[in-house]
Design goal:
With 183 residues, the chain is α+β, with helices and mostly antiparallel strands. The protein has three helices and eight strands.
């Protein structure tokens, strides 16, 4: 009986990982296809997404991201080097990303950027989705940036990106909060 329980736990772990990977792929595909509903399906209600120094509630993030990508002729998001830790209905993942884009006014010049998505995912109602995301921007090879600044709130406290265990990828549980808006 004990071996069967161990096998069931391993199978459930594989199912959880596959569903989390599918969630992360929906996000990338949704952005590349400008499919708001597909991007939204990767997040739970009330999710927070931190991209560099900007922090958003999920709906505001999707508005910002789609506006950013509307300015590009072509773009693709690649997700690689994935690690996933599952503990019941909560998981933490870290995935490296590679982003490639071409703007209409730059002919053949490409913007290429890399970083990591550090996520806290939760299973709610049987569905894995992102509840908190921190997107680190580790490097960028690009002409002048066209990142739109829409006056979004920052996070409090700032996210630590480093090559040691003070890096945001080690934070458990991963939680961020929006800084109060200056009034």
């Amino acid at each position: 009986m004990r071996a069967q329980e161990g096998l069931e736990a391993k199978v459930q772990g594989l199912v959880d990982r596959a569903e989390i990977l599918e969630c992360l792929n929906r996000y990338a595909r949704g952005l590349d296809r400008h499919d708001r509903e597909l991007v939204r399906s990767a997040y739970h209600d009330g999710a927070i997404d931190v991209h560099g120094s900007l922090a958003f509630e999920v709906e505001d993030f999707i508005d910002w991201a789609l506006a950013y990508h509307d300015a590009q002729l072509h773009h693709q998001h690649y997700i690689t080097n994935l690690t996933i830790e599952v503990h019941g209905d909560v998981a933490h993942s870290e995935s490296y990303y590679l982003f490639v884009a071409r703007y209409p006014d730059r002919n053949t010049q490409l913007t290429v950027a890399g970083g990591r998505y550090v996520d806290r995912l939760e299973r709610k109602g049987g569905r894995w989705a992102i509840s908190t995301r921190v997107c680190t921007a580790e490097w960028r090879a690009a002409p002048e940036s066209k990142l739109p600044d829409r006056g979004r709130p920052l996070i409090a406290p700032q996210v630590c990106v480093s090559h040691d265990q003070s890096d945001v990828s080690y934070v458990r549980p991963l939680e961020v909060e929006l800084a109060p808006e200056a009034g």
